[in-house]
Specification:
Blueprint lengths: L3 E6 L14 H17 L4 H6 L6 E8 L8 E11 L3 E10 L2 E11 L10 H4 L1 H9 L5
Antiparallel strand pairs: 1-3, 2-5, 3-4, 4-5
């Protein structure tokens, strides 16, 4: 399974009054991980949309284990948990060094610009096969 790792530092505006990263920022970080995961495969969201492939979120979840704080160096591990013809489920693990801070997922539909499901393997076999290579199913 292919896992993309993206590093960054926690910025001050991402923290609450206690100096702890506010919980909703983890979902934003998932988005960053997913965007950079796709970019690492040679696709930007813009290019996918230009090819008629949209990835709207259907469901998202996060389990918090330990807080991140201002200026921590964070690494987001992003991978594909499941790939179907009309859905893709991304998994995420957020680390500070070796310490797992949070883990979660996002389930994306694969649609056209009208949010109608499309079968990615038929619509764009190249993108589908590239994503399939990132899974354990190959």
């Amino acid at each position: 399974m292919y896992v993309y790792r993206h590093k960054f530092r926690v910025r001050y505006p991402e923290t609450d009054r206690m100096g702890i990263v506010y919980h909703s920022n983890y979902i934003i970080w998932f988005d960053i991980g997913r965007t950079e995961f796709l970019r690492s495969l040679g696709y930007t969201y813009r290019e996918l949309e230009e090819q008629g492939i949209w990835l709207p979120i259907i469901q998202v979840g996060c389990k918090y284990k330990s807080p991140a704080r201002y200026d921590d160096e964070i690494t987001i591990h992003t991978y594909i948990e499941e790939l179907g013809r009309v859905k893709v489920k991304f998994g995420y693990k957020i680390y500070r060094g070796d310490e797992l801070l949070a883990e979660g997922f996002s389930l994306q539909g694969i649609t056209n610009d009208k949010l109608k499901p499309i079968a990615l393997d038929k619509h764009n076999p190249e993108v589908y096969n590239k994503l399939l290579e990132c899974t354990d199913r190959q």
